[in-house]
Specification:
The chain is mainly beta and 484 residues long. Helix content is 11%, strand content 51%. The protein is built from seven helices and 23 strands. The chain has a 17-stranded antiparallel beta sheet. Strands 3-2-5-4 form a four-stranded mixed beta sheet, with helices on one face. It has a two-stranded antiparallel ribbon with strand order 11-12.
Length: 484
């Protein structure tokens, strides 16, 4: 699974030193009613809701995220909560760089006007693609194998028609070749609770991981032929009955074609066929109460997934997976986060290309970034203690005229973390499998470390960290995603 280097990463690093030295940043503060009429406790009536700054976005996409409507009656304390929650909801649509909500009170009346001001993001990204095709940046950096880079063109049009629809067209070359498109429509009904997505494409691979040995993938490469070809298509229905909960119903079809010397590798496939077809149904439930989705500091997140793959003339593949995450502000600039994730598979024997344990994306015990731990079941617990070394500030670049790029939020967080995990593999005790030396399976995993997180606009997260794992190995790691 690839990890993309953010397109503005080098620019952010180059300007980081100057930003840290500056201490004259204006804060991205939100004026709330408490700053205007402290201690007020009587009922208030929402008179008008005014929205400004949405040059492209339809107003109803914004009002969908507000927890109040014109004519609603709220107590003063309820209004404070509603303003804050609504601001977070609108920001988490990923349509805006900044969202502020102001109030205007009318003397001698219970009426209050609410003004929602937004700064829209840049929505069209016809940018060149450079993607690391290894599991994470640290694995690629060990070898610096440039043949493992995927390059090409990603045309992404966010907020199509001003309705938060997303069109993506993919032209990927190099290590992982992919050609296709996806289209997401978040709302197709008047109540804005039902959405659909669909897409199709083809993937081509000259190099493929075919097994795991000594806790690391073993690759096979053929520059003259494709080792794997996949043709796929999918459709998805999304139901969002409330602000925080969403149900996803996903149907897909995949056609696999393997080179002759691939499917014959023991354990890679369960059937002696070069052509294999799969239909998949999955259901995913999300309940998201995080303050900021891409790097939360307060709130909680829950999801649960059921995935059932129905192969043509081969074994089924069914699993359930769930995630629980909680975020606290302990005191002032101190924060705590914990995340628990688990997976349970119903089949003891799975083809290698379906089997997925720990070592991919966020599903890794920190300190084990260089390893893959295969298995049918796993549990992963992560914990973080954070200190806001630089709470979110804003810098304005005067010579850039557009507000989509000239106003940059920045925050720095020091981290101390501890992770534990366990992966169970049914095949681990088989004599022929033990020869592969995958001693991290069916074994307790633990890692601790210290790090620095940098967050900025367009959901960019840059993580530097040093970790020590249970094997007493140390390492310095770089990642581009929030760990919990």
């Amino acid at each position: 699974m690839g990890r993309r280097i953010p397109s503005m990463f080098l620019w952010e690093l180059a300007g980081l030193f100057l930003i840290i030295l500056s201490n004259a940043f204006p804060t991205c503060a939100q004026d709330t009613a408490s700053e205007i009429l402290p201690g007020r406790s009587d009922s208030l009536v929402i008179h008008k809701i005014n929205i400004t700054g949405n040059k492209i976005t339809k107003s109803r996409i914004i009002t969908r995220e507000l927890t109040f409507r014109e004519g609603d009656t709220l107590t003063f304390s309820s209004l404070l909560i509603a303003l804050k929650t609504s601001q977070q909801n609108v920001f988490n649509t990923n349509l805006f760089n900044f969202v502020t909500i102001d109030t205007t009170f009318f003397a001698g009346t219970p009426l209050v006007d609410v003004k929602v001001s937004v700064v829209e993001r840049w929505y069209i990204w016809p940018i060149p693609l450079l993607e690391i095709s290894d599991r994470n940046f640290n694995v690629w950096w060990q070898t610096r194998e440039f043949s493992h880079l995927t390059y090409g063109f990603d045309f992404t049009f966010h907020n199509v028609r001003g309705r938060n629809e997303t069109l993506r067209m993919l032209v990927h070359l190099g290590y992982n070749q992919k050609y296709g498109f996806t289209y997401k429509i978040p709302y197709v009904d008047r109540k804005q609770t039902i959405g659909i997505s669909f897409g199709s494409g083809i993937e081509l691979n000259h190099e493929l991981a075919v097994s795991t040995s000594n806790n690391k993938p073993v690759f096979l490469k053929d520059t003259s032929d494709y080792l794997k070809k996949i043709i796929y298509g999918y459709a998805e229905l999304q139901l969002r009955p409330s602000y925080y909960s969403t149900h996803y119903f996903h149907l897909s079809y995949e056609y696999y074609f393997f080179a002759a010397d691939i499917y014959e590798i023991p354990g890679f496939s369960l059937v002696d066929k070069r052509e294999q077809q799969f239909g998949t149904f999955s259901y995913l439930y999300k309940n998201d109460h995080r303050d900021v989705a891409f790097y939360p500091l307060k709130g909680y997140y829950i999801d649960a997934e059921l995935n059932h793959t129905i192969p043509y003339k081969t074994a089924h593949n069914t699993y359930i997976k769930t995630t629980l995450r909680k975020y606290w502000q302990i005191y002032n600039r101190w924060y705590w986060a914990s995340g628990l994730k688990g997976k349970l598979s119903f089949e003891k024997v799975q083809p290698y290309y379906f089997q997925r344990g720990l070592g991919f994306g966020r599903d890794v015990v920190r300190g084990y970034e260089y390893y893959v731990v295969d298995g049918q079941h796993y549990v992963l617990l992560k914990s973080n203690l954070k200190f806001a070394l630089l709470p979110q500030k804003v810098i304005t670049i005067g010579f850039i005229k557009t507000t989509k790029f000239n106003t940059i939020p920045l925050a720095l967080y020091l981290n101390a973390y501890a992770d534990v995990g366990y992966v169970y593999n049914y095949r681990h005790m088989q004599p022929e499998y033990q020869l592969q030396g995958n001693n991290l399976e069916n074994s307790f995993l633990a890692g601790i470390g210290l790090g620095l997180d940098i967050t900025t606009y367009y959901d960019i997260v840059i993580q530097f960290g040093g970790a020590l794992n249970r094997m007493k190995q140390t390492g310095i790691f770089l990642n581009f995603i929030a760990p919990i």
